[in-house]
Amino acid sequence: MCGRFASFTDAQDLADELAVAEIAEDARLLGPRWNVAPTDPVRIVVERPRREPLPDGGTTAGEITRSLQVARWGLVPSWAKDPGIGPRMINARRETLLDKSAFARPLAVRRCLVPADGYYEWRKLEVPSATRKTPKQAYWIHPADGGVAAFAGLYEFWRDRSRADDDPDRWLVSTTVITTAASDGLERIHDRMPVALPRAAWDAWLDPSVGAQDANALLEDASAPMSTYPVGARVGNVRFDDAGLVAPDPDPQDPDLVLL
């Protein structure tokens, strides 16, 4: 799974990297994060029709535009009674996307990229422990080329029926990160990993004219190369959120380090 990641690249730099035409104000103002956790606001890249103003004050759909938006991490399906389901849907398994009602619809019409500088995973260690708790080593996993990872994601709109029609907070936008079986050495750390789409797949993944079956096919064996090194245990506590979390662990517990 992917339960923690970091997103500290500036919004404009992300826009340049991902060929984004528009940056929403809340996405521009979202500060750097080194310890993003479930239900936190995150940036997502989407392609949707631009809303064009009408003389009567309404709007109409304009041209398809790639934009940087903000969503809450943890997908809330449109049919959910309340947003409490979100923390259980921070990830969507690639193998069952077409079978799960919460994911099949957004796979067809609401796909996104979740930009990240990297993510964290914990490796269970088979070493003696003075407690019953299995010791774990935290790892920082990041793009091998030093750039930004573009995780394949889905997003959804949920309407809060308790709010008035003119309440700007009546809609919740949420997102999930698609995961797949770990490979390329990452399986030594954890059996799952987020799908980091290679640059060549970005356009097709975001293209609203691409259907669910073709979009699902883009996820097969799609993984940008990653590098790893061990980091300290502080990342396990959401209260810590600083650049020191991605510093190499000077005294790692893992006797068989996974260095990719």
Automatic annotation (TrEMBL):
Transmembrane regions: none
Gene3D superfamilies per UniProt: SOS response associated peptidase-like
A Pfam family annotated for this UniProt entry: SRAP
Keyword rRNA processing tagged: no
Keyword tags: Covalent protein-DNA linkage, DNA damage, DNA-binding, Hydrolase, Lyase, Protease
The EC number(s) this enzyme carries: 3.4.-.-
Entry's family note: Belongs to the SOS response-associated peptidase family.
Name of the protein in question: Abasic site processing protein
UniProt organism field: Isoptericola haloaureus
